[in-house]
């Protein structure tokens, strides 16, 4: 099999196991083999080999996907680009960097901070930048800085044919032609393999503080979030924790009130005086909205402990509910529907007898739930996820705010997008007519078959 392939080819059981799973609840399915690409030419050669042999490929970065994007569905070869991890160029005067896809966000930030700059997209995991672009990742800082589409200036991609495309220019805006760059961002490796990215950098804020506000219930906490946004302050992070989440994190976060819904509100400023003014405005708004108490964290260690605990929430859940299977959802709804959506979560949790942890990037309407699925609870857990997604769609939301469609959300593509889903499948057929790239992901086989038959 290695004949005609470029890079290092492995069929070692340990490599196959690692490349057969991600952070999703799906069972591990080992790929046929793993190709470790080290250069763009390795990717080109591998793509052309796959086309000649009708062999399916799954691009693999850091394996941190939450929706099964890298999990094989049967006989695929994993194309691992993690060794393509160079910082190609860092241009402080242009506030941008050119990176290979295997470089992680923490790896980039280590270098960028030497110049007082940062790459702000923060999905929690130390994901690869190529994988973040492929899934249009976002996270806690989206309310201020946007997600990957907002912070990716240009891409280099290799198509299924082996052709190389440069998409976008290293500028902040352009009205030139169709925006193919944004088409590939969020395509989850189904249209092409990203081999280089140009990303935007931002100045590291001089002054940072985090407010911790506690409320009698989730509805009041959401009202507090609306009040904070309504101040017009440039909020950098706005995170909602339900009472269960607060209880899990209380042992790791100084000053957190156990079993009380909470908001974390992070503010950035260029001066201490400016930050003090912003804190005063936000503090008063939260109290007027019904917060019982509001605390402030300004010390770097205390601030970092807050966000580290939030990012490690999944591991706190595993510690609290050991030996379970964990079903993750990440619906997003219009801000006006957040309270209703949270009520649906609460009712489903009680009616189905499930252990559910809820948190969310409430500033952009993105709500995360984790169901700790005990033995015999597979059916009610699946019903919980389905009912929650369908409620999100009914109120004008989406089945996935940032994790992507992957495998788990394919059945909702047509329900969310209507006839546009068929056009998505046609786009897939245009760029990858042999269905070589990550088959079965995003666009399901039935939808793709219908699209190809209609050509």
TrEMBL record:
EC number: 1.1.2.4
GO BP: any one term: lactate catabolic process
Compositionally biased spans, kind Basic and acidic residues: 14-26
Entry keyword Acyltransferase: no
Record has Flavoprotein as a keyword: yes
Matching SUPFAM superfamilies: FAD-binding/transporter-associated domain-like (SSF56176), FAD-linked oxidases, C-terminal domain (SSF55103)
Highest taxon above the source species: Bacteria
Protein name as it appears in the record: D-lactate dehydrogenase (cytochrome)
Pfam entry (one): FAD_binding_4
Cofactors (names): FAD
GO molecular function, one term: D-lactate dehydrogenase (NAD+) activity
């Amino acid at each position: 099999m290695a004949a005609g392939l470029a890079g290092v080819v492995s069929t070692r059981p340990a490599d196959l196991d690692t490349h057969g799973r991600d952070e999703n609840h799906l069972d591990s399915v080992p790929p046929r083999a793993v190709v470790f690409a080290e250069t763009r030419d390795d990717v080109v050669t591998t793509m052309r080999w796959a086309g000649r042999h009708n062999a399916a490929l799954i691009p693999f970065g850091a394996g941190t996907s939450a929706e099964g994007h890298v999990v094989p569905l049967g006989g695929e070869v994993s194309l691992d680009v993690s060794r393509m991890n160079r910082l190609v160029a860092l241009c402080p005067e242009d506030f941008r960097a050119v990176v290979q896809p295997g470089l992680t966000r923490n790896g980039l930030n280590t270098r960028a901070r030497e110049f007082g700059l940062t790459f702000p997209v923060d999905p929690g995991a130390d994901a690869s930048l190529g994988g973040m672009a492929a899934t249009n990742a976002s996270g806690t800082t989206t309310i201020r800085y946007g997600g990957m589409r907002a912070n990716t200036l240009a891409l280099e991609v290799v198509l299924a044919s082996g052709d190389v495309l440069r998409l976008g220019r290293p500028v902040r805006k352009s009205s030139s032609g169709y925006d193919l760059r944004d088409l590939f961002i969020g395509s989850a490796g189904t249209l092409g393999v990203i081999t280089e990215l140009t990303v935007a950098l931002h100045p590291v804020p001089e002054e940072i503080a985090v407010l911790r506000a506690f409320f009698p219930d989730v509805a009041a906490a959401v009202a507090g979030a609306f009040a904070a946004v309504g101040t017009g302050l440039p909020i950098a992070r706005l995170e909602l924790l339900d009472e269960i989440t607060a209880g899990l994190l209380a042992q790791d976060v100084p000053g957190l009130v156990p079993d009380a819904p909470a908001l974390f509100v992070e503010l950035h400023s260029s001066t201490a005086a400016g930050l003090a003014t912003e804190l005063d405005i936000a503090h008063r708004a939260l109290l007027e909205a019904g917060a019982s108490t509001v605390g402030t964290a300004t010390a770097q260690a205390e601030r970092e402990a807050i966000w580290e605990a939030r990012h490690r929430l999944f591991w706190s859940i595993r510690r609290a509910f050991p030996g379970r299977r964990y079903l993750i959802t990440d619906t997003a709804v219009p801000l006006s529907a957040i309270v209703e959506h949270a009520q649906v979560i609460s009712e489903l949790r009680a009616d189905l007898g499930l252990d559910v942890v809820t948190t969310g990037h409430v500033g952009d309407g993105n709500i995360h739930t984790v169901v700790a699925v005990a033995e015999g609870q597979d059916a009610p857990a699946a019903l919980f996820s389905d009912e929650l997604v369908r409620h999100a769609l009914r109120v004008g939301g989406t089945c996935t705010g940032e994790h992507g469609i992957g495998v788990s959300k394919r059945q909702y593509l047509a329900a969310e997008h209507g006839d546009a889903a068929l056009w998505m499948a046609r786009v897939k057929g245009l760029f990858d007519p042999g269905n070589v790239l990550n088959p079965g992901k995003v666009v399901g086989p039935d939808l793709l078959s219908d699209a190809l038959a209609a050509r």
